[in-house]
């Protein structure tokens, strides 16, 4: 097993919570880690170097290799600088974990453009910018690993998280196409929806529930998806509290109309159209 030994892995938002655990895990497994974190608050305000520096110190003190980056993933320039740090320090980049995230919760009725844009910029644009900056290296070396942090709020919906859910499911859409386009160059892309006790969830769920969700249950799955041996691509996993589940889209047989039907005819067949008792994994009919 060569695992992630000597692989250069960027973990965004690695100054705390899940990202810190991902960074510590892959460093322990022999990866050279770029610990990226803007160092701000949960809502994305502020910035600082202390968070990323502390995780780099933890890794180096334990005998591992790591470098800090304080760039924001939310801009193309920040992502370019982040990837440059990896290349300047360790020669290339083999894997990216797009984990950086913020929250600006509020019901859709009260959602303003600033809350919408800020969340889309860090999660969806962040995943896009960083992966795009790393992509030429992946193609050149015929090896690349992308893990996106998605969320059950995107996969299934959650009150007050329209912006966050849209961004998180956008990342799954991105993974679907990266898996197809990356295949020729042995670039694998997957998404993980974690469930873990972090500053992001500390006031969302009861303490006794969060107690069972240390980030250490999530990081080994992310670590595995970064390994040389993994062949998994285009998949989504929900991981937390010891449970590791795959989530996928399915489609039913549906109904076939020989001619354009009337609205009434659609209504008549509605129960067959929506019946999920006989489904197969969904495919792009145009792909
Ligand atoms: P966290 O708040 O501890 O970690 C997010 C990190 O991203 C922070 O350290 C923050 O400073 C950093 N960050 C924010 N904006 C940034 C930017 N523009 N550039 C670089 N870094 C930035 O929260 P947690 O829970 O560890 O979240 C990690 C990821 O997992 C997030 O993408 C989150 O949406 C996702 N997630 C977490 C869940 C959980 O149960 N904790 C559930 C579902 C998804």
Automatic annotation (TrEMBL):
<dbReference type="InterPro" id="IPR002347">
    <property type="entry name" value="SDR_fam"/>
</dbReference>
<comment type="similarity">
    <text>Belongs to the short-chain dehydrogenases/reductases (SDR) family.</text>
</comment>
<dbReference type="InterPro" id="IPR036291">
    <property type="entry name" value="NAD(P)-bd_dom_sf"/>
</dbReference>
<dbReference type="Pfam" id="PF00106">
    <property type="entry name" value="adh_short"/>
</dbReference>
<protein>
    <submittedName>
        <fullName>SDR family oxidoreductase</fullName>
    </submittedName>
</protein>
<dbReference type="InterPro" id="IPR020904">
    <property type="entry name" value="Sc_DH/Rdtase_CS"/>
</dbReference>
<dbReference type="InterPro" id="IPR051687">
    <property type="entry name" value="Peroxisomal_Beta-Oxidation"/>
</dbReference>
<feature type="domain" description="Ketoreductase">
    <location>
        <begin position="7"/>
        <end position="203"/>
    </location>
</feature>
<dbReference type="InterPro" id="IPR057326">
    <property type="entry name" value="KR_dom"/>
</dbReference>
<keyword id="KW-0560">Oxidoreductase</keyword>
């Amino acid at each position: 097993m060569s695992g992630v030994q000597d692989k250069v892995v960027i973990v965004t938002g690695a100054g705390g919570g899940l990202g810190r655990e991902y960074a510590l895990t892959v460093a322990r497994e022999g990866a050279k880690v770029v610990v990226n974190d803007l160092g701000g608050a949960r809502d994305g305000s502020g910035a600082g170097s202390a968070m990323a520096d502390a995780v780099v110190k933890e890794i180096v003190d334990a005998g591992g290799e790591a470098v800090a980056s304080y760039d924001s993933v939310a801009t193309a320039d920040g992502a370019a600088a982040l990837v440059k740090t990896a290349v300047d320090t360790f020669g290339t980049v083999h894997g990216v974990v797009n984990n950086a995230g913020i929250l600006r919760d509020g019901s859709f009725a009260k959602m303003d453009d600033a809350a919408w844009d800020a969340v889309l910029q860090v999660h969806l644009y962040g995943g896009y910018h960083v992966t795009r900056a790393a992509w030429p290296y992946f193609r050149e070396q015929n090896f690349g690993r992308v893990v996106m942090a998605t969320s059950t709020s995107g996969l299934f919906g959650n009150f007050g998280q329209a912006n966050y859910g849209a961004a998180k499911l956008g990342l799954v859409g991105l993974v679907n196409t990266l898996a197809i386009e990356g295949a020729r160059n042995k670039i694998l892309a997957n998404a993980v929806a974690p469930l873990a006790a972090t500053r992001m969830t500390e006031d969302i769920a009861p303490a006794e529930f969060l107690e069972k969700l240390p980030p250490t249950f999530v990081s080994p799955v992310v670590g595995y998806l970064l390994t040389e041996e993994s062949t998994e691509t285009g998949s989504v996993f929900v991981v937390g509290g010891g449970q590791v589940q795959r989530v996928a889209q399915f489609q039913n047989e549906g109904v076939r109309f020989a001619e354009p039907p009337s609205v009434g005819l659609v209504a008549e067949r509605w129960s067959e159209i929506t019946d999920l008792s006989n489904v197969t994994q969904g495919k792009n009919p145009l792909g």
